[in-house]
Amino acid sequence: MATLHSYPFCPHSRFARLILAETNLEPDLVEEKPWDRRIPLLEVNPAGTLPLLVDDNGLAVPGARGIADYLDDVKGDALKDRRLLPQGLAQRVEVRRLLDWFLGKFHEEVSDYLATEKIYKRFMPIELGGGPPDMSAIRAARANVRYHLKYIGFLISKRNWLAGDQMTYADLAAAAHLSVVDYLGDVPWEEDETAKHWYARVKSRPSFRALLADRVPGMAPADHYDNLDF
């Protein structure tokens, strides 16, 4: 049985869980606190980053992008028209560009700030950086999410899905990161109905059910979080 080392509210981990579910793989989940850097995890992935997939043969696949590439290598052909990284060169380039955007830029400007300040620091020891949230970081993330939301709305106004006619890794990466921000009530959905309707389509998929069931201890989600129709 494959094993996924992840944390419920790590945005990259959520992306890995979505793409595994979409490719009909159900690994055992091992919860890792991102700030703990446990020795057993470091022995497999010295970077200590999440997520980490260990497949049935013991092959360790670190990182959200690494897991996406691995799944396309081992399952892509069999998925045919459900492939999450399309076969066409131009489409593959566009999916990878948007993966860089959401796993990199969006994470650095929005989801990492909010997950760290509003969730992780609640549980981290003081000596590891735990404590009250940095409100200036939260305000910056709340400002940044607005232009990312507009960009999603712009893309969807021109296409059926973010990268083109079919759902791809790009949609799942964007939705995974937004889902953490949405749990916290920090996505201004009223500012872009097109982006809102796209997100409703993605979160209505069966692969999203497990994510919508996750809860931060002592912190309820936004009222609309698990409402498929908002």
Q: Would you write up a description of this structure?
A:
By secondary structure, the chain is of the alpha+beta class. It folds into 2 domains: 3-82, Glutaredoxin, CATH 3.40.30.10; 89-208, Glutathione S-transferase Yfyf (Class Pi), Chain A, domain 2, CATH 1.20.1050. It has 8 helices and 4 strands, in the order E-H-E-H-E-E-H-H-H-H-H-H. A 4-stranded mixed sheet has the order 2-1-3-4, with helices on one face. Helix 4 packs antiparallel against helix 5 (135-158) and helix 4 packs parallel to helix 6 (169-183). The longest helix is centred in the middle third of the chain and has 35 residues, at 89-123. The model has no long low-confidence stretch (mean pLDDT 96). InterPro entries: Glutathione-S-Trfase_C-like, Glutathione-S-Trfase_C_sf, Glutathione_S-Trfase, Glutathione_S-Trfase_N, GST_C, Thioredoxin-like_sf. Residues 88-225 form the GST C-terminal domain. Residues 1-79 form the GST N-terminal domain. Pfam families: GST_C (PF00043), GST_N_3 (PF13417).
Distance between the termini: 36 Å
How large, in whole angstroms, is the Cα Rg? 17 Å
CATH topology of the largest domain: Glutathione S-transferase Yfyf (Class Pi), Chain A, domain 2
Main sheet properties: 4 strands, mixed
Please give the share of residues in helix.
Answer: 40-55%
Keywords:
single chain, 230 residues, alpha+beta, Glutaredoxin, Glutathione S-transferase Yfyf (Class Pi), Chain A, domain 2, 2 domains, 4 strands, 54% helix, globular
